[in-house]
Amino acid sequence: MLKAKKREIPAEELAVALKMSAENAGVSVVAKTLDKDFPVFDVPVNDKVLIYVPKVAGPNGEFADMEDFLMDRFGAHYCIQGKQGQYIRCVDKVELPSYDLDGTCPFCGASKEVWDLTRARFRDIARAKGLDPEAEDTREALKNEYSALCKQQVIGNPTVKVTFPIVVIDTKIDDKTGKHTTTPVIGEDKQLSWRVMWYTCSEKAYTDIWLKSLESFSDENGETPATPVGNFFVLDYTYTPGVNQKPTKRDSVRELKVMGKPMAEKFNQVKPVFDKAAKDWTPTKAAEVVIDNVLYTKEELETACDDYMKDTRAKLAVYEMQGETGSTALVTLGTAAADAVLASFSGTEDVEETGEAPPQVGIGTTETDEEAVA
Ligand SMILES: [Zn+2]
Known about the structure:
- This protein is of the alpha+beta class.
- 33% of the residues lie in helices and 17% in strands.
- The strands form 3 sheets. Strands 1, 2, 3, 6, 9, 10 and 11 form a 7-stranded antiparallel sheet that branches. A two-stranded antiparallel sheet has the order 4-5. The protein has a two-stranded antiparallel sheet with strand order 7-8.
- A hairpin with a 2-residue loop joins strand 2 and strand 3.
- The structure holds zinc ion.
- Residues 77, 90, 92, 105, 107-108, 158 line the site of zinc ion (ZN).
C-alpha cells in the first residue's frame, strides 16, 4: 500500500504535476494552489457570492490591527506562450541569498527586447500602410494595431496584485434566475456552510472597487471601516452580456461590484470563528502555496524567461539582419501588403482565460512603459 507523506517538492515541478493530473481527470483546470487545504477562490460566471473578510494574524500570531490589513502585495508579469498565459511573480528589488535573488528580475530585464520587437513590428505595419512610423499621428491612426501588438507581448510589464483570504459562505439559489441570492444556507445542524479561500485582484481593483465600496458602508458600530477586514460583502459578478453572447469569466471579473453587507446579529456572532479559521492565511503562506504568488529562484526564473523569449529573440534577430531600422522592403508596397502583414500578427491573440483579465497595456502608452520597469 502506498502511504502518502508530505514532502518538499519544488513549487514549479508540483505546479506542472498538478496541471497534468487535472488534465488526466478529463477537466482542464489550471491549478491555482499547491496545497488543497489552501484553495483559491474561483470567480463565478455572472453570479454573486456572499463573503466575509477575516482578520489575519501577524508574524507573532496576534491578530493584526484592523487598520493594518495584511495582504500579499506583489508585482506579477503576465507571460504568454502559445495559447497559455500565466502570472509570474516579479523579483525586482527582492534580495534573498538562498534563492540567489539579488534585486534584479530576469523578466524585467527582458522588457527592452520585448518592446524592441513591438516597435519593429509596428514600423512594418506603418510602412506597409504608407505611413511614417516615427510620425506622431501614426500611433494614433494605428492605435488598434498598436494595441494588438502590445497584447501579443510574451512578457508583460509587472502589474501589482494583492492576495488575501476571504470566507466564502454558501447561499440559497433563486429558483427563478438560477443565480445565488445573498441569503446564507443554514443546514439541518443549524450551521452555516463556508470555506476560507484566497482572493486575488489587482491593487487597482482593490483601491477602485473594494476601498471605494467602503465609503458608503457603515459597520455594526455605525463606523466607516478603513479596510474590508471584519465585514461581510457581496461580490457581485452579474452583468448583461451582449446580444448572442455568453457570459464569460473574464467579463464577470471586469463587471465586479463589491458591496458591504450588513448582516443580522446572529451572523456577526460567527465572525470570531471565521477569524480563527483564517489565522494561518498569512501573506507568507500565500507566497508559499498560491501559484501566481510563488517566489522562484533566480535560476528557475532565468530558465523560464529564456524559454518565453525564444521566439521574440529569433524574430528580433531577423530584424537585426535587415538593418537596425527593421524591414524596409515593404515601404513601397500598397495596402494589400499591409493586410498581409497584419494577418501575420493574429497568431497569439486568443490567450486562455485565467480567471482574471490580463493586464492591459494601454493605447497611447509610450516609452514610460519601459521606464516603469527599468
Ligand atoms: Zn520583474
